[in-house]
Amino acid sequence: MRASLIQIAVNPDEPVESRRARVAGLVRAERGADLVVLPELWPTGAFAYESFAAESEPLKGPTYEAMAAAARDAGVWLHAGSVVEAVGGALYNTSLVLTPEGELAASYRKIHRFGFDKGEAVLMAAGEEPVTVALPGLTAGVATCYDLRFPELFRGLVDAGAQAFVVPAGWPARRRDHWTVLARARAVENQAYMLACGTAGTHAGVEQAGHSIVVDPWGEVLAEAGPDEEILRVELDPAKVTTTRDQFPALKDRVLGVAKPERR
Question: Model pTM?
Answer without folding.
Answer: 0.96
